[in-house]
Design a protein that fits this description.
Elements: H1 2-25, H2 29-55, H3 61-95
């Protein structure tokens, strides 16, 4: 079981790393929000699932309740993350931020 938990935790790390690289590498405000919203939620899903499995390992009622609380955190983030990203994008549009456009070498 420890090997499975480690693999799931490493998958979460890969998603968090991809999201961090995407935030750094993408050119503008709007495209940086995509990895911030998608990959951070996926990384959280994997890492918190691994934590829930690790917590429930010596099975008891207390451990089960703790694992359920961890899963409820994931559900809460999956509900609030898209809403927060939408609100941030809306604020960017209202502030007048223009999307990035690739410059053309043709003149």
């Amino acid at each position: 079981m420890t090997i499975i938990i480690t693999i799931i935790l490493l998958c979460g790390l890969v998603f968090f790393t991809g999201g961090s690289i995407g935030i750094i590498r993408f050119p503008d405000f709007y495209s940086r929000l995509h990895p911030a919203g998608k990959l951070d939620s996926a990384g959280l899903l994997f890492s918190m699932s691994a934590f829930a499995l690790y917590t429930v390992q010596p099975f008891s009622l207390s451990a089960l309740f703790t694992s359920v609380k961890i899963i409820l955190i994931v559900v809460f983030v999956f509900i609030t993350s898209p809403t927060a990203i939408h609100a941030i994008v809306d604020a960017g549009v209202r502030a007048g931020l223009k999307p990035w456009e690739k410059e053309s070498n043709l003149k």
